[in-house]
Structure formats: C-alpha cells, structure tokens
C-alpha cells in the first residue's frame, strides 16, 4: 500500500462519497452510480483509482461485481496519523 496513492484517492470529494456509501454495505458499480449525477464511465474511473490505492476491493458474484471497503488500509493510514501526532507531542 502506498500512502501517496491513498492520499491522492482521498483528495477527491466524489471518491470520499463513494467510500461513505461502501461503509454502509457492499455495492455494485451501478448501485454506486445511482447516487451521482455522472456517467457510469466516470464512476468506473473513480473506482479504479480507489482500487489502485487499495482502499476498496471487488468480488465477482455471477454477473455482478461488488465493491467493498478495505479497512486494513484505513487502519494503516490512521496509525500513521496517530504516530505523526504523537511524535509532535513528544517534541513539545
């Protein structure tokens, strides 16, 4: 997992909204697209970036591909933030 890729993916509001949707439950690309006023290829582009950053994973179930959060990456990023904040506190 690259922190650069994760931060790049998180920098976009649409991708953060997709992650919020996936927090509730696994969804197909079509279900995700129904929450946005954009074409499906644009949603697919956002999903590709999130997947490349390992923030989401996908699993095929018959003809459908379901997307879900990869909470491990969120845990790694959170650990980094806490480590960063604690280091600043130690330096005071």
From TrEMBL:
Residues 1-89 form the HTH arsR-type domain. It comes from the Bacteria. It comes from Lottiidibacillus patelloidae. InterPro entries: ArsR-like_HTH, HTH_ArsR_DNA-bd_dom, HTH_MetalResp_TranReg, SdpR-like_repress, WH-like_DNA-bd_sf, WH_DNA-bd_sf. The keyword S-adenosyl-L-methionine does not apply. PANTHER family: TRANSCRIPTIONAL REGULATOR, ARSR FAMILY, TRANSCRIPTIONAL REPRESSOR SDPR. Keywords: DNA-binding, Transcription, Transcription regulation. GO terms for molecular function: DNA binding; DNA-binding transcription factor activity. It holds the Pfam family HTH_5. This is Transcriptional regulator.
């Amino acid at each position: 997992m690259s922190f650069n890729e994760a931060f790049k993916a998180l920098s976009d509001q649409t991708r953060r909204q997709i992650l919020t949707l996936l927090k509730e439950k696994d969804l197909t690309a079509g279900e995700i697209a129904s929450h946005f006023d954009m074409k499906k290829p644009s949603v697919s582009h956002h999903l590709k970036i999130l997947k490349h950053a390992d923030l989401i994973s996908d699993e095929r179930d018959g003809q459908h591909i379901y997307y879900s959060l990869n909470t491990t990456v969120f845990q790694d990023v959170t650990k980094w933030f806490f480590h960063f904040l604690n280091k600043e506190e130690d330096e005071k």
